[in-house]
Amino acid sequence: MMRIKIIGLLMICLFSTLACATITTIAENSDVPTIESYAEVEPLPATLAPVPESQPSVGSDAFCPNITAQIMEIATYTEETESPSDLGVRDDDEMTYLVTYLIENDQIVEPYYEDVPAELADYQNDSAAHEEIWAYFSNLISVQNREAIAEFAIMTDGQDNVLASVIQTYDDPNYWTLEVDILDTEDYYNLTYTLVHEYGHVLTLGPDQVPPSLAVFNNPEDNDIYLSELSACANYFPGEGCANPDSYINNFYSQFWADIYDEWNAINLEEDDDAYYEKLDAFYYKYEDRFVIDYASTKPEEDIAESWSFFVLGPKPDSNSVAEEKILFFYDYPELVELRAQILNNLCGTFPE
Description:
Layout: E1 18-22, H1 35-38, H2 65-75, E2 96-104, E3 107-113, H3 121-125, H4 127-140, E4 149-156, E5 162-168, E6 176-181, H5 188-205, H6 214-218, H7 223-231, H8 248-256, H9 261-268, H10 273-286, H11 300-313, H12 322-329, H13 334-350
Parallel strand pairs: 4-6
Antiparallel strand pairs: 1-5, 2-3, 2-4, 5-6
Helix pairs in contact: 2-5, 5-11, 9-10, 11-12
């Protein structure tokens, strides 16, 4: 598969500030909930009600543990031979957009339909399925926590590659589009994990954390402008802009990437695809105990999003490795511990049986 890699320090997935996630196919998993089974679930209110007294306290790991354990087992399963080079990377040449919605009053409205091949017409016109996918995400992440998400797109790059991604909107870098591959939404275990991962990108790269660089946004193919913005930034520069000094991504980078970033970046600058993946594999295996999963080694932005997903959906670990310290990183922020409790409370009331 062709890899989109940028000259300089830009993101692997796409020059115009994109974050993406992949899925793995689990064989013989007949109990995986499907989109059809979710249709029977009543939506939760847009604003989260207070956690009932019968619910576990904030920070507890007792939220529907059977569901979260299954999500983590299925969504993070990899073959023993899998490495970063085996993971799908978004390829815009393979991406087909079906329809894009605006989000108003927590509803998807004003669909914009693209020209699509005839074999995708039924997926494009299945507005009920689109609404169900959006309802699941909007129930999972309460409206007050996702104000930066302004659009929702249904796309596909074929089955079992990129399940979902987030990208700054075309008109305004302060807002983001959530994109979901409709061909990959039947498995609610992988879907849930990936939606949490993608929300992690918005949480850590949104405008309150990383003020967007208008110069980069308006000139996405100008490497000189990018390098100028990069050199003027005293903090971590993920591509969208210069991270605030006290931002999650800047603190995460300072704690876990500062000592290996130059080594990683030398690999990221490799122009030969085969050599790049070979070096990335070697990088991952050299620092395997630092990453919660292989995909996290592809860049700091993916590392913090994967660590966030483990924080939300997994139990609180001991501090026996750098990878576990990355999960514990989020426990240092009371607002994120509270947000974790809210997401888990929403998940337990929404996940289809």
